[in-house]
Specification:
The strands form 9 sheets. Strands 1, 2, 4, 5, 22, 25, 26 and 28 form an 8-stranded antiparallel β-sheet that branches. Strands 3, 19, 20, 23, 24 and 27 form a 6-stranded antiparallel β-sheet that branches. By secondary structure, this protein is mostly beta strands. It has 9 helices and 45 strands. The protein has 4 domains: 162 residues, Jelly Rolls; 134 residues, Jelly Rolls (Sandwich); 233 residues, C8orf32 fold (Roll); 75 residues, Immunoglobulin-like, CATH 2.60.40.10.
């Protein structure tokens, strides 16, 4: 697995050391080079070619496609539809109008016919290449005629969609579609231009750890003379603003962190902090702006200098070994499923602990659960007696998929696996491929996300995962190997290969990887507690809902330009979980103050073991009394589902005085 740096990528040079004997403090001047590897960016900024800049693409949309595929506007002779976009700055090098369905329709842009159009590959979207000269400041109107349909998302505002029954003489903004309701057409306009503003945020700088690279630190006192210098390009009409905040903890928490504060700008793109920092944790935010949609500022390098004052740790302590994990953080919030009545009902009604009880390893348990989930409905892809596609709800699916009374296809098999894994305390999520749905689950044993394909065939024995040289793969790793023409190196590991014919294997494997043309993750897995926001009957129609994060190889979207949420940052898809971290401060003779923190979804409590003793519940901060000789402390987290997470530990030696 790729090695990642803990909080941010940086190089450190100790410039000056000044030991002040009377005060028993040490002052070090530090220099940090930040390469943006761990910076997080909004959907308007990006890290491109190792530079922090604005994304050269803006999607204008008034809806997210949270609707049903039958909620349509039927356009025919005499019935027109109109969608308005308000542009503050229409200057761009390319303009595309994306319409869900849209086949058979004609388009006017501000009264002028637009004829160049095509279908997006393997989707239900139609796209028109709009001549940029037709766009204007203010309201831009796109009028649809011909014979076809538009999709509608119900809403009251912003009231920019309308239909006409008299060929455009009059328009109704509050009476749309087959339901005669209010809403917005699922129509989106993407312009190749720079947005007015984008914001990116650094990782958290631990000033004490930068100055004192030991595992056990002395107490932090303060930092001053802080300067941030940008090697940047700031063309006319653009600007870069920097601000900072300070905190008490290594993980941002509003209760223990300050609000954002402005730097004091100096010449030569250098910013300074006005005050001495009395907190050891420090973070920077860059705000990039442009008044000209054709140019953008960028930051090529960022250098931070500071004088850090701290008390040195006990010089008689020697660190023997450290297992303090590295953390990868996504820039995008993810909503995790809470422990509730329905997760408990799922676990107990279907005896999920019994399903996986014979698994000797975590991976064996995952495979057992996947195989069980697929066999809950041996007959898949059958509408059943209700002719209904159930939502992402394992309790509903399991109640209807036996006879079957409702449809059970790949999205439902993946939902069963995902939500049953969650009910057992694991973290899993659905993954949307190009016309297929799989799951990914976080493995504590492997320290990574791995893909599980629960429902891929009429033959239930073909549920599988994929490996490369014995390593379990996730969706991005599979896609990368396929794009490199190395799919032949990938091994399919089936639940029961003896139940599969050679023809079934060959037919399946020869066409499988085209599904990885693109993939997306939902930004939550709490569907057992909250059905909205969501997409009713997801997977039954082609994809129109903009509630998922789509992978792109580049900063600007190419594979999925019809969506507003895209990223080429690996960490946005594959962050780390279930880790316990410790911070060690030598706070007095024979005492180390231990502070614990974690990235555990639905965290319950910590356990600690001293010198190999029994595990005991502990608060997040406590004093560790050390003795002469070897000392060991081990810590781990437990989530609300009762799952114990991996252990972190450190071993030190205290020299005999």
């Amino acid at each position: 697995m790729r090695k990642y740096l803990t909080i941010l990528a940086l190089a450190i040079i100790i410039v000056d050391v000044n030991l002040q004997a009377k005060a028993q403090t040490m002052t070090k001047k530090i220099l940090i080079y930040d390469c943006f590897e761990t910076w997080t960016a909004d959907f308007y900024s990006c890290i491109s070619n190792e530079k922090l800049t604005l994304r050269n693409s803006v999607l204008y949309q008034d809806e997210e496609g949270q609707t049903h595929y039958a909620n349509t506007e039927r356009i025919s002779s005499g019935i027109l539809a109109k969608k308005q976009f308000i542009l503050k700055n229409p200057v761009c090098s390319k303009a595309e109008l994306f319409v869900f369905h849209g086949a058979g329709l004609n388009l006017l842009c501000n009264g002028v016919p637009v004829v160049e159009n095509h279908n997006l590959p393997s989707t239900g979207w139609h796209v028109w290449n709009v001549p940029v000269k037709l766009l204007k400041t203010g309201i831009n109107e796109f009028v649809f005629s011909g014979k076809g349909t538009l999709l509608i998302e119900p809403s009251l505002y912003p009231n920019r969609s309308a239909r006409s029954f008299d060929e455009g003489k009059t328009w109704q903004f509050d009476n749309l579609g087959v339901n005669n309701g209010n809403g917005e057409y699922v129509v989106r306009l993407r312009l190749q231009q720079y947005p007015e503003k984008g914001i990116a945020t650094s990782g958290i700088y631990d000033l004490l750890s930068v100055a004192d690279k030991n595992t056990v630190h002395g107490e932090y006192i303060s930092a001053n003379d802080i300067q941030v210098k940008c090697i940047a390009s700031i063309p006319d009409g653009t600007s870069i603003e920097l601000q900072y905040r300070i905190g008490k903890t290594k993980i941002y928490n509003p209760a223990s962190w300050s609000a954002w504060k402005p730097f004091r700008r100096k010449i030569n793109n250098t910013w300074t902090v006005n005050n001495i920092l009395d907190e050891r944790f420090f973070q920077i935010q860059a705000i990039l702006k442009t008044k000209n949609a054709t140019v953008a500022p960028y930051i090529e390098k960022l250098q931070i200098t500071a004088s850090v004052k701290y008390q040195p740790a006990d010089e008689n302590i020697r660190v023997v070994s450290v297992e303090n994990p590295q953390s990868i953080i996504s820039r995008i919030p993810f909503a995790y499923q809470e422990l509730n009545y329905r997760t408990q009902a799922l676990r107990s009604m279907y005896n999920l602990d019994q399903v996986i009880k014979d698994g000797k390893t975590e991976i064996e348990k995952f495979v057992m659960l996947r195989n069980w989930a697929r066999h809950t409905a041996p007959k898949g892809w059958d509408w059943g007696t209700s002719m209904w596609c159930p939502p992402w709800d394992a309790l509903v699916i399991l109640a209807t998929n036996k006879q079957p009374a409702a449809l059970c296809m790949c999205t439902h098999y993946s939902t069963i696996f995902t939500q049953c894994a969650i009910a057992l305390g694991y973290t899993a999520r659905q993954v949307i491929l190009d016309h297929h749905c799989v799951a990914e689950i976080w493995s504590n044993e492997l320290g990574k996300w791995i893909l599980m394909d629960t429902g891929n065939s009429q033959n239930p024995e073909m549920n599988c995962h994929l490996e490369h040289n014995g390593v379990f793969l996730n969706a991005l790793e599979i896609r990368n190997l396929w794009k490199q023409n190395r799919a032949n190196e990938i091994k399919f590991v089936y639940a029961n290969e003896s139940g599969i014919t050679e023809k079934e294997k060959n037919d399946f494997e020869s066409s499988y990887f085209k599904n990885f043309r693109r993939f997306a993750i939902p930004l939550r897995n709490n569907f057992l507690g909250n059905p909205v926001p969501g997409e009713p009957e997801q997977g039954q129609s082609e994809y129109y809902c903009d509630l998922y994060l789509w992978w792109e190889d580049n900063c600007e979207p190419v594979e999925s330009p019809e969506y507003g949420k895209t990223s080429n940052r690996v960490s946005d898809f594959y962050w780390t979980l279930n880790q316990t971290f410790f911070d060690l401060i030598s706070s007095g003779k024979d005492t180390i103050t231990v502070t614990l923190y974690n990235n555990v979804p639905q965290f319950s409590h910590y356990l600690v073991s001293i010198d190999g003793g029994v595990w005991e519940k502990t608060p997040a901060q406590f004093d560790w009394k050390i003795h002469n000789g070897r000392n060991e402390i081990a810590v781990k987290s437990v989530n609300l589902f009762g799952l114990e997470c991996p252990v972190s530990r450190v071993t030190i030696e205290k020299q005999i005085m």
